Amino acid sequence: MARERREKKSDRQQGELSENVVKIKRCSAVVKGGRRFSFAALVVVGDNKGKVGQGYGKANEVPPSVEKARKAAMRNMVAVPMNGSTIPHTVKGRFGGAEVILVPAAPGTGVIAGAAVKAVCESAGIHDILTKSFGSTNPVPLVKATIEALKKLRTKSDIERLRGVTLS
Questions:
Q1: What NCBIfam families does UniProt report for this protein, alphabetically (predicted)?
Q2: Closest among 81, 131, 129, 88 to 105, alpha carbons compared
Q3: pTM assigned to the model
Q4: Which CATH class is domain 80-161?
Q5: Where in the chain is the domain with CATH 3.30.230.10?
Q6: CA pair distance 64, 4, nearest whole angstrom
């Protein structure tokens, strides 16, 4: 059981992008000759300057699954509005059975989050944030819920432009 739930965390620099392997799952299928194993990898990629993406890849070996997930993460990059080293406002994200609340924090607070949410926030370049997750503890929906929350962020200038007013 412990082998099936292996977690591997590694940071690799890909040019200016950092890659973080959040979870590697081993799956088995019973076939005529015994068991056939395959692997699924969840990878978060970010530039530490406000862009982050997640990818999920499956293959018969670990390295190809991580490579597929990395390529998918690079295709799914989203821009994250920043307010210094934190986010502009409190936001809630939901995906499947997972719900994540992200709250801006004062400088020096750090990233207060679980492993999956922390990987996304650090890859995006957020250094000060408070988070709380509800529901599922599965890293796949937690990462997707965090990305959904980050997509909902708006800066003060964006809101002024959309509403056509000046905020104080």
A1: rpsE_bact
A2: 129
A3: 0.87
A4: alpha beta
A5: 80-161
A6: 18
